[in-house]
Amino acid sequence: AMLGRRGNRNKRATVGADKGYDSKAFIKGCRRLLVTPHVAAKDKHSAVDARVTRHESYKTSLKVRKRIEEAFGWIKTVGGLAKTKLIGQAKLAGQALLCFATYNLVRMGGIGGWWDAHHA
């Protein structure tokens, strides 16, 4: 339903998803909507075929998805957002903003070589 609501439907698009979306129905629906599914393939009986996996953009999509998952994992464990103690949307939004900003600083420090980001 969300893919059907996207803007310019005459232009091809891509969508990234985890292994839970590796089903024939989802892949077929994406193709019908002119969306290339960059779904993480299951080890056995995958619906993702070589039309998708042979392209370099698919490999790049998997790398980017891993980077995003690392950020959310850090925010949940180190940032304390796995189980927040705050009540109210404004307070939770502030905590999330602070966690994401902190993660960005840690990541920039690791990329720039200013400090070892693995110990933060």
Task: Give structural notes.
The model has no long low-confidence stretch (mean pLDDT about 80). The chain is mainly alpha-helical. Strands 1-2 form a two-stranded parallel sheet. The N and C termini lie far apart (about 40 Å). It is built from four helices and two strands, in the order E-H-E-H-H-H. It is globular. It folds into two domains: about 55 residues, no CATH class; about 55 residues.
Rg over alpha carbons: 18 Å
Low-pLDDT windows of residues: none
* Overall pLDDT confidence: 81
Number of strands: 2
Q: How far do the termini sit from each other? A: 40 Å
- SSE ordering: EHEHHH
How many separate helices? 4
Helix content: 40-55%
Beta-strand percent range: 5-15%
What would you call the shape?
globular
Biggest β-sheet description: 2 strands, parallel
Class from secondary-structure proportions: mainly alpha
Which descriptors would you attach to this protein?
single chain, 120 residues, mainly alpha, two-stranded parallel sheet
Question: How would the blueprint of this fold be written?
Answer:
Blueprint: E1 13-17, H1 24-32, E2 35-39, H2 50-53, H3 56-77, H4 89-112
In short:
With 120 residues, the protein is mainly α.
